[in-house]
Amino acid sequence: MIVFPNCKINLGLYITRRREDGYHDIETVFYGLPFTDALEMVPAPETKLHMSGLPVAGDQTTNLVWKAYQLLKENYSDKVPTLDIYLHKAIPMGAGLGGGSADGAYMLRLINDYCHLALSNEQLATYALQLGSDCPFFIYNSPQLASGRGEKMTPITLDLSAYSIQLICPAVHVSTGKAFGMITPRPAPFALEKLATLPIEEWKNHISNDFETPVFTQHPALATIKQQFYNAGALYAAMSGSGSAIFGIFTKGQKAEIKTEVGFKEFYTDLQIATK
């Protein structure tokens, strides 16, 4: 069986509180995009994880796909067999797109279907939370208003299919931990549950990503890319997560010609995947 874990972007992202457990409370809207990795598994004498595509830091024991397999194997040892697992990475890492989280969540879904475990989305989301704060989003994989660490989610009605979304992934790695260290938490300046009722042309005047100011200071090229989106007529542009990916939402069929000294990969909804 093969599945294609997709990435996400953040529409608005506020860091509202540093918690006693060391995590931060956030408010954001997660929105999935159709740019994907590939994940396949087949029966095998012993379980191995085979990786291709973009290089992945660490060994297989730290990979969320491997952790997802081990998690369900421990709980359903009589139903989950040994497998050859193949992960092809296309979603850049350290970009704020949730690619690793998607891989882990999709592995849970894949095993659930392949092994007929009959776990509900709610049960899968509970397992996914053990892998990472934003992993449960990829179980539901529909627009969600997220709070807490990112694990408390409420469905939000939002459809951007009438627009084109251009995603630039610069060759800049932003450490999520370091990015959080540069943030001063504050109350959310806009109620994101109202996002779907706000015309997209007004988003830039009401919603923002708290990570942009400190990250753009460290990496000015990212601010330049965002401004190029607006210069080309983007209705809304922002950084996703803690970066470094920058996206622009355009009238259908439009896009920006990005010029920067920083290498990048480009994804565009109307053209599927194109790379630079």
Summarize the structure.
With about 280 residues, the protein is an alpha+beta fold.
Features:
single chain, 29% strand, five-stranded antiparallel sheet, 25% helix, 7 helices, disordered C terminus, Ribosomal Protein S5, domain 2, globular, Alpha-Beta Plaits, 276 residues, alpha+beta, 13 strands
Care to describe what's here?
This protein is of the alpha+beta class and 276 residues long. The protein folds into 2 domains: 2-155, Ribosomal Protein S5, domain 2; 163-274, Alpha-Beta Plaits (2-Layer Sandwich), CATH 3.30.70. The chain is 25% helix and 29% strand. The chain contains 7 helices and 13 strands. The strands form 3 sheets. The protein has a 5-stranded antiparallel β-sheet, covered by helices on one side. Strands 1-4-6-5 form a 4-stranded mixed β-sheet, with helices on one face. A 4-stranded antiparallel β-sheet has the order 2-3-7-8. Helix 6 (212-218) crosses helix 7 (220-231). Mean pLDDT is 92; it is low at 271-276.
